[in-house]
Amino acid sequence: MNIKPLGDRVVIRRLEAEEKTKSGIVLPGTAKEQPQMAEIMAVGPGGMIDGKEVVMEVKVGDKVIFSKYAGTEVKHDGVEYTILRQNDILAIVE
Amino acid sequence: MNIKPLGDRVVIRRLEAEEKTKSGIVLPGTAKEQPQMAEIMAVGPGGMIDGKEVVMEVKVGDKVIFSKYAGTEVKHDGVEYTILRQNDILAIVE
Amino acid sequence: MNIKPLGDRVVIRRLEAEEKTKSGIVLPGTAKEQPQMAEIMAVGPGGMIDGKEVVMEVKVGDKVIFSKYAGTEVKHDGVEYTILRQNDILAIVE
Amino acid sequence: MNIKPLGDRVVIRRLEAEEKTKSGIVLPGTAKEQPQMAEIMAVGPGGMIDGKEVVMEVKVGDKVIFSKYAGTEVKHDGVEYTILRQNDILAIVE
Amino acid sequence: MNIKPLGDRVVIRRLEAEEKTKSGIVLPGTAKEQPQMAEIMAVGPGGMIDGKEVVMEVKVGDKVIFSKYAGTEVKHDGVEYTILRQNDILAIVE
Amino acid sequence: MNIKPLGDRVVIRRLEAEEKTKSGIVLPGTAKEQPQMAEIMAVGPGGMIDGKEVVMEVKVGDKVIFSKYAGTEVKHDGVEYTILRQNDILAIVE
Amino acid sequence: MNIKPLGDRVVIRRLEAEEKTKSGIVLPGTAKEQPQMAEIMAVGPGGMIDGKEVVMEVKVGDKVIFSKYAGTEVKHDGVEYTILRQNDILAIVE
Lengths: 94, 94, 94, 94, 94, 94, 94
Hints:
Structural class of chain A: mainly beta
Number of domains of chain A: 1
CATH architecture of chain A: Roll
Strand content of chain A: over 45%
Helix content of chain A: under 10%
Largest sheet of chain A: 6 strands, antiparallel
CATH class of chain A: Mainly Beta
Oligomer: homoheptamer
Number of strands of chain A: 10
CATH topology of chain A: 10 Kd Chaperonin, Protein Cpn10, Chain O
Shape of chain A: globular
Radius of gyration of chain A: 13 Å
C-alpha cells in the first residue's frame, strides 16, 4: 500500500463480520463508543509527537480493536482504509 | 484470553451481583458515577503513555472497583469484557 | 478494611452531624460546593500520578474536610465509603 | 485554629466592612469577579502541587484581597472561614 | 500604595481619555476585546507561577495597554485600581 | 512561491479529482472529517513550537492527505493555497 | 512607533487591498478564518512565554499573513494597529 502515515498514525482496514466470527470475537458496541476490529496496513514512524516520545507498539498485520469514531476514512483502489492515531487502538487480538 | 491491551489499558470482566455478595461489597452507585466490581483479565505493558511513565499497579486476577461509564465493551466467546485505562480503576478489593 | 485505593486515592467514611458537634466544626455548605467531614479509612500509595509525583499527606484516622461532590460512593458490610483523590481533600481537622 | 489546610491551600476569615474602612480599602466588585478582603488564619505547607513546586507567599495574619467566588466555606465555633488555594489570593494589603 | 500583588500580578490605574490624548494614543476597542491604557502602580515578585518561571517585564510608572476585561477592580482611598496578571498586559507605550 | 510559512506550518495546493484518479486514491470523506489530497508547496522551518521540538517530516512536492477543515485558505496569483500545521497532515501518498 | 509589545507579541499594520494587488496576493477568506495581510511594525523580545522559550521569527518590515480575528486593535496618531501573538501569524510573504 502506498499510504505512509505521519507521526504516530496508522492505516487500518476494517475486518468484516465473517472475519470476526472466525476469531470468535464479537463487538456489540455501545451508544457511547462503538468498537471495531481491523487489520494494521501501515504504521507511522512514531517519534516526538506533540513533544512526547511515542513508540509504535503495533505492526503491519496485527488484528486490533479500535474505536469506531476515531480517525479519517480514505478509499484507495476500491478499498476503504482508516487513518488514526495509535492511541485510538485499544488492544491487539492474538 | 487473546485480547492484549495496549499501553496502560486493562481488560476486565464484570462481576455479577451474587459474586459481590460473597465478598460483602455492595455498590449502590450514584447519579454522577456508578461504580462496578470486576476481575482483571489482562494488563497492558504500561510505559510511556502521553509522554508520562505509567507503572501498572494491577495484575490478572485482581478484584477491582471501576467507574461504570469508563472504557469500551467487547464480547468474546460469549463473554463481555471491558477495555479501560488503569486510571479508571479506583481500588483493589482484597 | 479490604478496599485498597490505587494511586493518589483515599477511602473515607463520612462523619455524621453528632460527630461534628463534638469537634465543634459545622459545615454549612454553599450552592457551589458542599463541604463534608470524614475520617480517612485507607490511603493509596501515591507515586507517579498522571506523570507527576504525588506524596500522600493524609493517613488513616485523619479527620478531613472534603468536597461533597468529589469521588465515588461504595457500600461495604453495611457502611458507606467514598473513594476520592487526595487532591479533593481540603484540610485536616486536628 | 485546628483546621490545617493541605497543599497550597489557606484558611481565611473575611473582614467586615468596618474593618475595611479602617484600612481605607473599599472593594466595589464587578459582575465578573467580586473581590473581598480577608485575614489569613492558616497556611498549608505548599510543596509539589499538581507536579509543580509551590512556595507559600502568605503567612498567618496577612490581610489579603481574594476572589469572592473562590474556595469552600466552613463554619467553626460560630466563625465562618473559607478554604482556598493561594493562587486565588490576588494581593496582600499592608 | 499599600497593595502588594502576589506572583505575576500587577496593580494598575486606568488613564483617562485626556491623558491618552496627550500621548497621542486612542484605543477604540472592538466587540471582542476592549483595550485600555493604564499606569503600573505595583508589580508582584514574579518567580514560579503555575510551575513556570515568570520574569516581570513591567515596572512601576510604565504606561501600558491592557485588555479591559482582565483582572479585578479594587477601590482604595477613592481611587480605582485593577489587579491583573502581567500576561494580560499587551504592550508598553513609551 | 513567495509564501514562507512560520514554525510548523506548511503551504499546500489541493489536488483536483482528475489528479486523484491518476494515483488511484479516492477520498469519499465523512460527516465528521472530510479528507483531501494536496501537494506540499512550502514547508516551515519547524523547531520549538509551543515549547515542543517539531521536526518537519514533509517536503516540497509530497502528495499528502489532510483534513479538509484544517488551515487557512490564501489565493495567490489566481491559485488557491491552504496554510496549515504539519500536524493536520495525516499521511504521505507515495 | 512608541508601542513596545511584551513577550511574544507583535504590532502590525494592516495592508489595504491596493497594496495586496501590487504583490499579487489576494486573500479571499472563509467563514471559519478570514486571513489578512499586514506589515510588522514592532516585535516583542520573545523569551520565556508561559514557561516555553519563544524565538521571534518575524522582524520589523516583514509582510505577513495573519488571522483576522486574532489580537487587539489599537489606534495611534490616526493609524490603526493590531497587537497579536507571533503564533497568530501564519506566514511571511516575500
